[in-house]
Please model this.
Amino acid sequence: MLRYVTTNDGKLTEAREYLGDEVTQFDYDYTEIQADDLGAVAAHGAREAYRRVDRPVLVDDAGLFVAGFDGFPGPYSSFVEDTLGVEAVWRLADSELDDCRASFRCVLAYCDGDPFDASPDPVDRADRAVAAATGARETESDGRAESVEGANNEPDPVKLFTGIVRGELVAPRGDGGFGYDPIFEYDGTTMAEMDAAEKNAVSHRGRALEKFAEWYAQR
Model:
């Protein structure tokens, strides 16, 4: 059974559209490191969650990337939402940018403790390069990275899957969704104006899940 590490029931519902009953929810508050790359954040969380449950796990990290702000808020989207608020992000973009192009991005990180076969896909090679970043294995006692006597300090292998949906920032519209959905417009409609089925059909997480499900079926 695959554990999806999330407290968001909506994410689990979306994951089951691609993975069926093979996936279940795992409520675990892993350490969210500060990094400029979604893959690094998700990979760290997947390794930590796998060591906690000792079962295959899936962790996601997502963000809003605004082209005119060089990708900001990106991996810091949750912090910016909590501190500034979604409408403040729109006001800043509206006042400072002529071009409000943006994208939602999601990275799924999978870990089951076993190595992965190499793939000729160049995107896959790039994913593996990100996931292969070295680091000390953490102990279970306090989560701090430290060397463990007699243990293998190589990081557990992690496989990454990325989904992207491109659109633009607009004045808030719609009552659905969550986070930045009201200010992100895709093909003339904000994510907050879409029902769940419409949103899932184009969402960044759905696109990442589709890639993962295809790979996982052969795992």
In short: Residues 38-53 form the longest helix (16 residues). The first strand starts at residue 2 and ends at 5. The radius of gyration is 18 Å. Residues 178 and 192 are 7 Å apart (CA to CA).
